[in-house]
Amino acid sequence: MSRSDHFDAIVAGGGHNGLTAACYMARAGMRVLVVEKNDWLGGAAVSRELHAGWTYSNCSYVCSLLRPEVVRDLDLPQHGLQVIPYTGGATFTRDGDYFAYHSDHRALEREIARLSPRDVEGYERFSIAVMRQCRFIRPLLLRTPPDPVAPRPRDVAELVYLLRRFHDLGPRETGEAMRFWTASVGDYLDGFIENPLIKAHLAGSGIIGTGLGVYSPGTAYVLLHHYMGDVDGAVGAWGFARGGMGAVSGALARAFRAAGGEVVTCSGVERILVENGRVTGVALANGDTYRAPVVASGMDVKRTFLGHVEAQHLPDDFLKAVRRFKIRGSSGKINIALDAMPRFPAAPEDASFLSGDLHVSESLAELERAYDDWSVGRWSAEPYVDMLIPSRIDPTMAPPGKHMMTVFVQYAPYDPERDGRRDPAHWDEAARTAFADAVLDRIERVSPGFRDLVLHAEVRTPVDLEREVGLTEGNIFQGELTFDQLLFNRPVPGYADYRTPVKGLYLVGSSAHPGGGVMAAPGANAAREILRDARRLDRTERAFRAA
Amino acid sequence: MNRIARETVSPRPRVPSREGLADTPFEPRLRALSTAEDWMDWSGCLSPRALGAVETEYFAIRNQATLFDVSPMHKYRVTGPDAERVVNRLVTRDVARLAPGRVAYVLWCDEDGMVIDDGTLFRLGPQDFRLCCQERQFAWLHDIAWGFDVAIADETGDVAGLALQGPTSHAVLEAAGLALPDLRPFGIAEPEPGLVISRTGFSGDLGYELWLRPEGALALWDRLWVAGADLGLRAIGFAALDIARIEAGFIMAGAEFQPIHRALRPSRGRTPFELGLGHLVDPGKPHFNGRRALLREAARTPRRQLVMLDIEGTKDASGALVYHRGRREAGHATSAVWAPTAKRNIAFAELDARAARSAGLRAEIYTLKEGRWERTMASATVIDRGVFRPPRARATPPGRF
């Protein structure tokens, strides 16, 4: 075995969190190798050209949660990352009306008043309530959760920090926080807003990527999770990465290489090597072996421990908890190359909100029915769609005058039901076509002529996400974002500090705190713990403290 | 021999001077696009601070293409056998090295070496220059030109200017039938008679400035507007451009320095060296205004230094006082902004030269938070000017986006 097979750390999986952790380690002076099974880096933050002239953000499609501290620490703009905010959005209705979520505050007030005069203040109160919770929770994103059960001195300090924040919040807001962490987005919205269409528009963020319905407890937090990002300090704002989401991983990869990092693609980690309870390296699918005292797994907790570490190295209770970890796939996606800008007759020509997120679900009841379909193993007959046309803003996505549309579809099961049996294999060509038809028909209803504009479409089911990206069951968050799987419970109680029962093996992906979305927080937090263990924290410490 | 520079004299107009702001040739288009109704006075002209949302306009500069009316800028034409000698007496750079068809960024100083103004100098021909700047320089140019054989004209009202800036700006030109694939940065072209296009601008990104007679202004606007429809073209106001120029590291008169001719307090004057622009002073060339003083200045360490600061956190450091090692006041921020593309909190700051070279700087930032002022001492680091200078800005031929 040659020297070149030895590293200070190996990152298994070149997704955005793996790359983030790799960057921090390389910048702290470690010799780091990233191993990726695909011939491209980025995991679920990718841009690919599947139809000549069009760029798809194949999986994740918008950007907001990416921690500004990480962007700054790693100089990502210098490495080519440009995030362009988009503004506005709309939900269209069958009867030819719509609710326009204007980015202009006054225009939004007028629009809400048009549909429901009392909801103007209701929406205002809702926004303040959400923002108060965001203020509370955002600082926790870049902190390692404390272990409340077996506290070490650090945990105690962290618990005190948490309690202090609750104290700052005051008794009423603390109660509100509890409600937020446990309530359903439907119940929560019912408390503020009357108009069904406005509620439906706002509720979408509560179910995206989640195997829950709008009236399932826990979905209010999922909404919060989607609100706590920001673009340039505008909390709750979302943007496009210029050139698609691959620009995020592209910039991370360049930052990593600039720091001296090495990358192996086209062959994934087959086995994480463990000797006497210590990690020693990885064996790849192609037979190559690399050694390192630290292995950082960007794969989800199930894939890491049930697929790539031999069970003999893991304690029973840990394995059991990992097996129980909820990671159900609930969404699909269609990426579409369009010959022209689709028409939305309800909207004024060239309305600015058409550059935002567009939807077609009219009420919470309709959203709940979409969930009912999923829970019995069918894709939704009337799915919730989150459609965006990034090419309206980003000139790199499609030729001039042509457009690229990304359609996120909720719900789609991982293992569709057929003849009383559920099986991922039921996603055959016929099923995929039928699924895509359900979505395209629904868009066609609010945008007549839409189907004629489709030049190419990439249909992605949870099974595709699992096979291509490696997300177990195609869950986009590497595990659901419900309270039983958040903070010190993420991924499993007792292991929320990115360490695992195997010494030297760390979890750096979204299975760990604070969870999914292109946030880079798990990767950055995990890197801090790895560097702490390796006693190399000094260089990065200040950056983290500042955060 | 007539020792006074020739001057184009037009008959004095009989219309009484009007109160308020004058319109530029593009005014009808700007007014029609304005939803923000946020206007400002730029050299006496009505100029948009923002037409819509500043954020959208800023990102159009960095992501698409933008039109910004630069007609209010003062424009002077210097022509004649002695034109090069006159311009060389004015500015601190050596204009003899500026070839016809090229543009240079220039400064000029008073006899004490204090900066009067900065601007762009276009060499339209061997004996033909145009100077674009913020401040009136008509009389000053005549002072400089005394005894030389040149004609000096104030073209401010005779030339409409339109800045087309952003990564798709060349694609817009191309779609408008004005492709200039070979035009390098700081180059000048005349793709059609009467339309001069220079590859210049204040955004730090790919961009052009278009110059023509005011009569053709609206037709040019409409032509670009149609061409840019599928390329994200937007009209913008100054607020968006101001963010871009700080991010690109460009100084502005009235912010980073006080034009000495307008300063009540002589101590407010600054030399090019203090502004960090010593490289624009050519000590080797023959006499130019302020040369003696600048040679003296070049030999010693400047008292102050204009620097770019990277400031911890995200709070806007506009107007912040900067402290060095605890409580010693070392200077102040002249312009500050959160750089939305570079994702850094930056500021131009004028510091004592010693502080500018050392660590341990802190900016005292006051933020109004829901009725209460909060004070933050944010640590600050001196960094290279220009936190966003993408390669696409310099690529020739320019990219599609």
Description:
- The complex is a heterodimer of chains A (547) and B (401).
- Chain A has 547 residues and is an alpha/beta fold.
- Chain A has 17 helices and 23 strands.
- In chain A, the strands form eight sheets. Chain A has a five-stranded parallel beta sheet, covered by helices on one side. In chain A, strands 18-19-16-22 form a four-stranded antiparallel beta sheet. In chain A, strands 7-6-17 form a three-stranded mixed beta sheet.
- The longest helix of chain A is centred in the N-terminal third of the chain and has 30 residues, at 153-182.
- Chain B has 401 residues and is α+β, with helices and mostly antiparallel strands.
- Chain B has three domains: 19-73 and 157-248, 2-Layer Sandwich (Gyrase A, domain 2), CATH 3.30.1360; 75-154, Aminomethyltransferase beta-barrel domains (Alpha-Beta Plaits), CATH 3.30.70.1400; 303-385, Elongation Factor Tu (Ef-tu), domain 3.
- Chain B is built from nine helices and 20 strands.
- In chain B, α2 packs across α7.
- The termini of chain B are far apart.
- The A-B interface holds A 68, 71-72, 76-78, 82-85, 87, 103-104, 232-234, 242, 393-396, 400-401, 546 and B 53, 55-56, 59, 62-64, 167-168, 171, 175, 230-232, 312-314, 338, 340-344, 387-388, 400-401.
DSSP strand count of chain A: 23
Instruction: Tell me which CATH architecture of one domain in chain A applies here.
Output: 3-Layer(bba) Sandwich
Number of helices of chain B: 9
Low-confidence stretches of chain B: none
- Major beta sheet of chain B, specifics? 6 strands, mixed
Low-confidence stretches of chain A: 542-547
Spatial strand sequence of the major β-sheet of chain B: 1-9-5-8-7-6
CATH architecture of the largest domain in chain B: 2-Layer Sandwich
Question: Strand fraction band of chain B?
Answer: 25-35%
Tally the beta strands of chain B: 20
Q: Determine Rg of chain B (CA atoms, Å).
A: 22 Å
Q: Which structural class do the helices and strands of chain A define?
A: alpha/beta
